[in-house]
Each structure stands twice: as structure tokens, then as C-alpha cells.
Amino acid sequence: MVRERTKKLRGGHYGRGFKAGRGKGKKGGSGNAGMGKHKWIWMVKYDPLHFGGKGFTSHHISQVEVPINLGDVEYMYESLKRDGFVREENGEIIVDLRAAGYDKLLGNGNFTVKSTIIIDKATEKAISKLSAIGSKIENDGSSA
Fold this sequence. Notes:
It is built from five helices and eight strands, in the order H-H-E-H-H-E-E-E-E-E-H-E-E. The chain is an alpha/beta fold. The protein has two domains: 1-54, no CATH class; 67-143, CATH 3.100.10.10. The strands form two sheets. The protein has a five-stranded mixed sheet. A three-stranded parallel sheet has the order 1-4-6. The radius of gyration is 35 Å and the shape is rod-shaped. The N and C termini lie far apart (103 Å). Belongs to the universal ribosomal protein uL15 family. One of its GO terms (molecular function) is rRNA binding.
């Protein structure tokens, strides 16, 4: 009975080298060996960030403004009141948008409630619309 070629080559090292044909084939190194050489194409295709990221990293904290329109304040007025961001002091209505998490008041839409609005920044359009109905804007304790 003659052994087949594969069986003959399994133990020796002439036909396929020492370890080839024993189950794992010819690996070309284990793990990440050869990523910069013979496994380069695999790395570029399946692991493009293998040697590190690309581009620049921003190391400063970016401050993102959270804006709100006058029309949105009008629309959300009841929910702001329910959540405690609208209060009444000395007969004057105060809307604290800074405490509600907003940084800038934009002038799109209409606001009809005469009140004092507390916010850090406001556009000229928002200020003119509010002053037309007799409202004020306060930022850092000073009126705008």
C-alpha cells in the first residue's frame, strides 16, 4: 500500500518546508508580523489605522453655543414655566433661559409675553423685537 503525496509530505520538510501542511498552512508569521511588508495589502484594506490615526487632534475644549429662537421660547413657554425657568418677582415675569441651558437668543419668530429674559447673548433682531413689546434682556446682571 502506497501513501498518498500529502501523507508523505506531512512529517518531512522537503516538499513544503517544516510546518506547512500540518493544519494551519503557510502563515507568513503569527499575529501582526509582516504588516509593513508581505501583509501590507491586507492591512491597508482591513485595518487602515493600524499604524495610528490620521489628521490632527484638537487639544482645546470647544465651547458650543446653544441658541434658541424667540418663536421657540413662545412655543415652549408653558413647559419652561412648568419646569421652573419662568418665575414672577414683584409682578414682573422673568424667563431664565441661561438656567434652561441656552446661551444665545435669536430673533426668528415672535414672543408676545412682556417679561425680562435672562440669557448671555442676543442678536440685534431679538433685542429689537423684545423692546417693541416692552421686554428686557439681562446678561450677567446688566440689562441689554
